[in-house]
Amino acid sequence: MTETIVRRRTQLEVDETSRLSLHAIRSSEATRRRKVEEDPSDIRLAFQRDRDRILHSRAFRRLKHKTQVFVPHVGDHPRTRLTHTLEVGQLARTIARALGLNEDLAEAAALGHDLGHTAFGHTGESVLDEILRGVNHEFSLPENVSSAVGRFKHNYQSLRVVDLFERRYDLPGLNLSDQVREAILKHTSWKVDYPFPVPDPGGLFLDKPCHFEGQAVAVADEIAQQTHDLEDGLRAGSVDLETVEELAVSQRVISEIGSDPYFRNQPWIRQNSLIRGLIRLFVLDVVESSAARIDRFLGRHEISDHESFSGQAREVSQTTVWMSAEVEEFFLELKGFIYAKIINQGPVSRQDWRARKVVTALFGAYWSEPTILPDYLLMRATEELDLPHIRDLPLKRVAATVAERYHSTPGFARLIVDHLAGMSDRFALEEYRTLQLPSPDQDI
Asked: What is the CA radius of gyration of the chain?
């Protein structure tokens, strides 16, 4: 009788090495800010553990109530930040597998890439950044605060979430691998000197391009975003299918399907075929173009094994894993179309305007009256910023302390931003109603 062998970490690492390309990161190469002894009996590899920590985080669960483009509470089918994240994970794994990269690393980074995203989509992100920069038209921070507090960007905030705010252990953060942290940060634009309080820049290689697995996440994010925003816009009636079919990229997809069989179908089947064809076009092009670029890089540097690749890994281009120039033109055409016909139209613009009002009003309320903040945030203000605990002050001293201490401390503005960035749409709207539109029978 054959005995089933349980593959534990050491054997899994051997198996992984045998199937990965020489330009892929090995799980055995994972590094962490806090070094821990790896359990050799574990049945998960390092990046699988990162994935699981992200999946079980509170920030991940909140994504289900955060807007992608269309607010989720007006229908059952618009994408949320959570479904977007899952689609990015699926595309990132597909691209990574086809290129012989580490799928577990790509998946973990994809699942964590938007943990720091605000409620109300990119509008919420823009409002928080405007407030911190002192350019919001409805609320102004003191100049000494706005000049020192830095800015807001969701990829940096995602790093703050996984490094500081999620607490499943005695110490702050999830202690994710540096490779996953780097890919989370670099899934969209970043700068070496961006004014944001990165908790620990170690292991992020801020002056270098991201590794190939992280680049796979970045391009998967772009593809998922544009194709599902188009599908959601079609379903919402923001744009009609016939107009979309006139695009050059759509004509390319239809020609590959075959014009006659495509147009013989019902509109809803044509729509599904078109979205599916767009995803296929972009993903296949990314894989084929990236493979050619990787081969050129390996040949140029005379790399023939993983060890020699590791010595040159940081010399890669940031767009090694990306589309061809031809297909990128199609992609940019689609992106511009989606912005003009879906994002920058009445229904989305109206919800964005309301989102601006909600986020700005909540920040203003917390800033002017910190006593309405949750106790744990006031405790953070005391422990991290050395501010007097408001709950312990005599009533007659509260207003003066807020004006003299809280409003002169840049970290207090950052604390409010951290609180707002973690809110779901639903929580933010309810908080707005509670504070701005109180009614006699409303629970406090």
From this structure: 24
Q: Tokens representing 134? A: 């002192």
Record the tokens describing residue 128, joined without a space.
């928080």
d(CA 113, CA 158): 7
Is residue 3 left, alpha or beta, with left meaning phi > 0 and alpha meaning psi from -120 to 50? beta
Distance CA 178, CA 163 (A): 11
DSSP one-letter code for 73: G
CA distance 86 to 315: 30
Task: Write down the mean pLDDT value for the chain.
Answer: 92
3-state helix, strand, coil in the chain (%, to 5): 65, 0, 35
- Token readout for 387 is 């501010």
Over the range 75-87, which residues count as b (16 or more CB within 10 Å of their CB) and which as e?
Answer: eeebbbbbbbbeb
Q: Which two tokens stand for residue 425?
A: 């749409």
User: For residues 431 and 261, what is the distance between their CA atoms, to the nearest angstrom?
Assistant: 52
Helix axes 410-421, 121-133, angle to 10 degrees: 180
What are the residues whose beta carbons fall under 8 Å from the beta carbon of 247, sequence distance 6 or more?
A: 333, 334, 337
Residue type at 61? R
Q: What angle do CA 413, 418, 420 make, to 5 degrees?
A: 95
Mention every residue, 6+ apart, whose C-beta is less than 8 A from residue 143: 134
Tell me what the mean pLDDT of segment 375-402 comes to: 95
By CB atoms closer than 10 A (0-12, 13-18, 19+), residue 6 is: exposed
Count CA within 13 A, CB hemisphere, residue 121: 21
Residue 70 has pLDDT above 70, yes or no: no
Under DSSP, is residue 80 helix (H, G, I), strand (E, B) or coil?
A: strand
How many helices and strands (H and E) does the chain possess? 21, 0
Report the predicted TM-score, pTM, of the whole model to 2 decimal places: 0.93
